[in-house]
Amino acid sequence: QVQLVESGGGLVQAEGSLTLSCVVSGSIFSINAMGWYRRQAPGNQRDLVATISSGGKTNYADSVKGRFTISRDNAKNTVYLQMNSLKPEDTAVYYCKQEQSYGLTYWGKGTLVTVSS
Length: 117
Description:
Elements: E1 3-7, E2 10-13, E3 18-25, E4 33-39, E5 47-52, E6 58-60, E7 68-73, E8 78-83, E9 92-99, E10 105-107, E11 111-116
Parallel strand pairs: 2-11
Antiparallel strand pairs: 1-3, 3-8, 4-5, 4-9, 5-6, 7-8, 9-10, 9-11
């Protein structure tokens, strides 16, 4: 059974930093693409924040480019999201996603990030 567990969320002031982690179990971590998404209000869809391929290629939403960095440690089955220069509009529940072959996807339960002004 594939499980993704996020951690690292919390309350931070604007211009502060946080690092989110997502530990994956039950799958071969190194061969799968990973991503971070966020839901900024209940009922909204989850929006892409950043993705990283199995080979390390990254992609970012325009709203976070230059401020957020996604990385992965295959030895630890973990993907990270370093968030700098946080803004109140970054407040959201952040979700980790694993993308496997044949369209299979798995999600974590999310971690809340609140940025105060």
